[in-house]
Specification:
Layout (H helix, E strand, L loop, with lengths): L1 E9 L4 E9 L8 E4 L10 H5 L2 H5 L4 E6 L15 H9 L7 H21 L1
Parallel strand pairs: 3-4
Antiparallel strand pairs: 1-2, 2-4
């Protein structure tokens, strides 16, 4: 299992933001993805720091994505942050290849290569 803390520039938010991604040890190409959203007073680290998520995740083959959304209520606001679009399009839109999907895919390839090297 790999815990990845990513910081990148979001086009939808027009600012730098962060997301945590937990990848399974032996990821499958079309594996399941779980999106965990934090509460009003928390951030992208809350699920990792305040729960047993890492322990549970180590027993599954699920990719877990935990984006930072500040105090946005995960909504779009006129003339302000577009968090709904950011979560739906940039973070998790696997079908159209969102930014986080591409980063996860690169990490996935590194993990598969590492696993193959260890097996061989």
């Amino acid at each position: 299992m790999a815990i990845n803390r990513l910081e990148f520039y979001s086009e939808k938010l027009q600012m730098n933001t962060r997301v945590n991604v937990i990848l399974p040890d032996h990821p499958k190409d079309k594996g399941k993805i779980l999106l965990l959203l934090h509460g009003l007073h928390d951030d992208e680290n809350s699920w990792i720091n305040q729960t047993r998520l890492v322990s549970y995740a180590s027993k599954t083959q699920i990719t877990i994505i935990m984006p930072r959304a500040d105090r946005s209520y995960y909504t779009n606001r006129d003339g302000d942050s577009q968090y709904f679009d950011y979560i739906g399009e940039e973070d998790c839109n696997v079908a159209s290849g969102g930014l986080i999907y591409h980063v996860i895919h690169q990490i996935f390839l590194l993990l598969v290569c590492r696993w193959v090297d260890l097996v061989l």
